Amino acid sequence: MTLLTVWPDAGPDETLVRTTDPEEIATALKEHGVRFHRWSVVDGVTAENALRVYESDVARVSETEGYTYVDAMEMTPADTDEYRAKAVEFRGKFLAEHTHDDDEDRYFARGAGVFYLHIGSKVYAVLCEAGDLLSVPANTTHWFDMGTTPDYVSIRFFHDDDGWVGNFTGSDIATKFPTFDELRSGL
Q1: Where are the chain's structural domains?
Q2: Mind listing the pLDDT tens digit for each residue in 10-45?
Q3: Are 114 and 176 in contact (CB under 8 A)?
Q4: I need a labelling partner for 139 at 20 to 30 A (CA). Which of 75, 79, 96, 170 fits?
């Protein structure tokens, strides 16, 4: 279930908004230039077949938004040292607050993750589930949490073949807010 939670950026002591209604989520995010859409979910999607399965949706978004490069990535839990190391590395890479010079558009074909958008004096936590497409505009301060056991397939859209290069703020704000695992457990 997709969830939007909004807090003051001082911390999560006061919840300003908490909703699972897709229309309310889209409306609240649109005020800040963030696009949120829902696509149909197709079972059995992997990184290898995602671009083919969602070919028409990918083509429409790429054409509308001018994306020149699209890829798919996958994290699937496994009881191996390799998976655990990869999970820690990937999660740690995105947990610190940062911006990108490009939009960050991501469609969740399977699984979930949380984008935390630090806009003005608020933090918007968007728990995205399978079927969610979220577009974080360029230069929007944010961080991303895929949880301690990442499990998702996502399609990522780029204007540049170099992908998203993080410009880290040095802030520890991400440590003040509930993690992916804590948000999921509260549903």
Answers
A1: 3-185
A2: 999 999 999 999 999 999 999 999 999 999 999 999
A3: no
A4: 75
